Amino acid sequence: MNFSQSELTSQVAASAREFANQHIKPYLMKWDESQEFPMQVFKEMGKMGFMGVLVPEEYSGAGLGYFEYSAVIQEVAKVCGSVGLSLAAHNSLCTGHILSFGNEVQKKKYLNKLATCEWLGAWGLTEPNTGSDAGNMKTTAIKQGDKWVLNGTKNFITHGISGDIAVVICRTGEPRAKDNSTAFIIERGIAGFSGGKKEDKLGMRASETTEMIFDNCIISDANRLGEVGAGFKQAMKVLDGGRISIAALALGIAKGAYEAAIKYSKERQQFDKPIAQYQAISFKLADMATKIECAELLINQACNLKMKSLPMTKEAAMAKYYASEISVEVSTDAVQIFGGYGYIKDFPVEKFYRDSKLCTIGEGTSEVQKMVISREIMH
After folding, report:
1. How far is Cα 217 from Cα 194, in angstroms, rounded to an integer?
2. SS3 206
3. 293 tagged catalytic
4. Per CATH, which fold does 238-377 belong to?
5. In Å, how far are 250, 252, 256, 259, 328 from 352, measured between CA atoms?
6. Is 0.90 topped by the overall pTM?
7. Catalytic-role residue among 227, 350, 363, 376
8. What is the third-level CATH fold of 7-119?
């Protein structure tokens, strides 16, 4: 059991750190205020290989593993959660789904564009009435000859307007019936496919979150991913890997908040000494550091299992659940350490605080993670 980071992972992390500090840090509050989606940053990350971290080199990807992927997301999220979230969604969900379940024709056609971010990806499972209850979805795909007709609305979709391509799960059977959904690839520009309302969010404001609307959208059967009826099972497998990325996102936010709090507590003086020397502050920092280490170990365990192609549903859910909850706790403590300055936008911790909360909700709430964990431990 080797706990040390490999040289490759360290190099990739350093490269992501440098990129984030140079291309994201100077602009992050501007993007947060205006809710501008910084597409150019993603194009630049595409050139760096960050938009296809897990994609094999034969499809223009970086051909790296989950440890490197986790490191890239963490380094970006330490600077800006919004960019980290979009990075994770593009890699894990849309690209990951096609990589895992696409046929060779689909992989060749789409992965080269996605891995370089020539095309930005979206992924649609959630609907207004079916958040965690995905088996009851209202978006349907009805077969007509060798075509499918899609109708319905997806919501809370990352890149629902700006994405060039979306993988969408549609109901192809009866509500709540077994194997009642199928995954499809839909390209932007096709008739009947549009982006809807853009959400005005508490945090993650530079990451685009919108509706995707299908109105008699006709696509070819060649755009179907895998077997008819396999959509939900595919989505659950995709989310297993996606949970590692949200855990890494949460951990990056926690690390960003913690590092800011450490720096501030050494510089800020009260009663003629740095506040870090007071037990009230130092014990808080000790708790924050311990939580961060625990989350990192859980994430690394999930990455290790994933790299060995071993079952990791429980471990990924544990990593996502724990990392997201401690991200909220650590960023809350960071605001407290900053005091009044923590509540002001001139200082970095209020944004970590706002961004962290999404991690306990997106890609399966903490309650859903506990459902997954409890199901796995009852076996």
Report:
1. 10
2. coil
3. no
4. Butyryl-CoA Dehydrogenase, subunit A; domain 3 (1.20.140)
5. 10, 10, 7, 11, 9
6. yes
7. 363
8. Butyryl-Coa Dehydrogenase, subunit A; domain 1 (1.10.540)
